[in-house]
Structures are given as C-alpha cells and as structure tokens.
From TrEMBL:
<dbReference type="InterPro" id="IPR036052">
    <property type="entry name" value="TrpB-like_PALP_sf"/>
</dbReference>
<comment type="similarity">
    <text>Belongs to the ACC deaminase/D-cysteine desulfhydrase family.</text>
</comment>
<feature type="domain" description="Tryptophan synthase beta chain-like PALP">
    <location>
        <begin position="18"/>
        <end position="278"/>
    </location>
</feature>
<keyword id="KW-0663">Pyridoxal phosphate</keyword>
<dbReference type="InterPro" id="IPR027278">
    <property type="entry name" value="ACCD_DCysDesulf"/>
</dbReference>
<dbReference type="InterPro" id="IPR001926">
    <property type="entry name" value="TrpB-like_PALP"/>
</dbReference>
<protein>
    <submittedName>
        <fullName>1-aminocyclopropane-1-carboxylate deaminase/D-cysteine desulfhydrase</fullName>
    </submittedName>
</protein>
<dbReference type="Pfam" id="PF00291">
    <property type="entry name" value="PALP"/>
</dbReference>
Amino acid sequence: MNPVFNQSINIQFPNDISLTIKREDLIHPFVSGNKFRKLKYNLLQAKAENKDTLLTFGGAFSNHIAAVAYAGKEQGLKTIGIIRGEELLDKIQENPTLKFAQENGMQFEFVSREEYRLKNEESFIEKLRNKFGDFYLVPEGGTNELAVKGCEEILTNEDSGFNYVCCAIGTGGTISGLINSALPNQQILGFPALKGDFLNDEIRIFAKKDNWNLISDYHFGGYGKINLELVEFINAFFEKTKVPLDPIYTGKMVFGVIDLIGKNYFPAHSKILLIHTGGLQGIEGMNIKLKQKKLPILKTND
C-alpha cells in the first residue's frame, strides 16, 4: 500500500472556492483506489473462511475484474470472473482489461446478458458452485458490508476542514463508506455513472446518516458513455494539474463539480475534496473505442 495524499488543484475558482483531490489512484499500482479499499477486508474474510478461490462478476473493461485478478494472485488465491457478454470469449487478446486479468491467473466464464442479470439469484450462485466448487463470492463492483468498512477508511483526520466530499458512484459502496465516516459539518455528494434512481435504495442499505445527496446530471448518457466534450475536459484537466482522470467515473465527477461551481451551487469559501477512485486501467480500452470513433484519445502522461 502506497501513502495516499491530498493534492491541491491550482485552478482559480470564483467565490474563494478551493478544490483538493485525494489521490486514492496511487494507493497500489494495480489494485487502484476504491478497489483496494473494497477488497481489503474481503480478502481477510476469504482467508479466515479458508477459501482458496475468489469468484466475482464484471463487464468487458471492469476495474473490479482487473483488481480482483491481481489481488488474488498477490494473496495466493485462485480467481474466477463471470463476464457479461458471450461475444467476448474470442476477444480476450484485443481487450486490455481481460488480457491483464487472464495474465494474472483469472479463469473466465462468459455468460449472456440475460443470464448475467441473474447474478444475485441464489439458484444462479448454486449453479456456479456446482461448476466451480467452493468459492468466496465478491459481488459485482465489490460492494458489501466489508467493502463499505474498507471505504470508511478513505477519510482521515487531515480531511476534517472540508465542507464537501465528492465521489463518483458505481454500485454505491464507496459513497456509503464516506457517508458513515464523514464529520457532522461535511456533506457527501455522489455523482452516479449510471442512469436511473435505484442507487438511493442501494446506498440506504449501508449508509448510517443522511448527510448526502446524489447529483445525477453528469453521466453523459449512461454507463461507459463518453463524448468529445468529456475527452477534451479530461485532457485539459491533466494539462493543468498532471492528474489523470478515468472517463467512466472520476472524470465525470470532476466535470460535474467544476460545472456546479460555475453555476453557484456551492456557497462562497467552500472547501471541496474530490475522491479519485482510480480506474485508470480502463483508459487503454477506452482509447481503442475513441480511435474507432475518430475522437481524440485520453492522455495519461506528457
């Protein structure tokens, strides 16, 4: 585990508003950001239960799939990935995420999108146990009570001076941890990467306070959707700050926060902390798609 630090964003904002980004993306070279936090206690639990195999779920460019594969290898555990989309079976070598996971020992099972929707059904899990034997189940995106416990460790004493803490949301585990560990003077703002209002209910399963709000205007059309405006924003932000942002989660959240500052959403003198949840491994795959669409690619280095 590498030390995480808060980096001030040296951009002038109106009304004496300041932005700082917590560089959770630097916590581990391959198990990045919130994935490290979510897996920490799940890996300990798997070992406590004497399990030698982790089984989990994900899509073609899943940060979670890549992280579980590497973390499993690092901890001496076998890993199985149930992957959404049977058509990916013959495309592993063309897909940077799946190729990385396979190189780190993950065994794949490709299922149809219809079957994938059954991932939380006990009958489907039982079928997987019959096929693969006894395993420790890590949910899609990694969110469960142990994941939230890990995410409660993101905020530290040095973050007490921030009025707002902002993060992107996939499955709701990270924001739940932030909500639970935030101080009474702090408001947690979540920026969903998916369309739909179901996340409120998901977060309420784990969140113990009401100090939060979801801002659903910055998903850019839905999960994994990206356009020229977002690419140009991420690249300009990198030019100014040298902080690379992923286009699925943190990039959209940072875009949203800066847009809201311009719309006077935040009171004067607000101190805002942005949580960088990692996910940079997905940029290579996204750049393949951007080239196909004849759009500029995302920059992660000078």
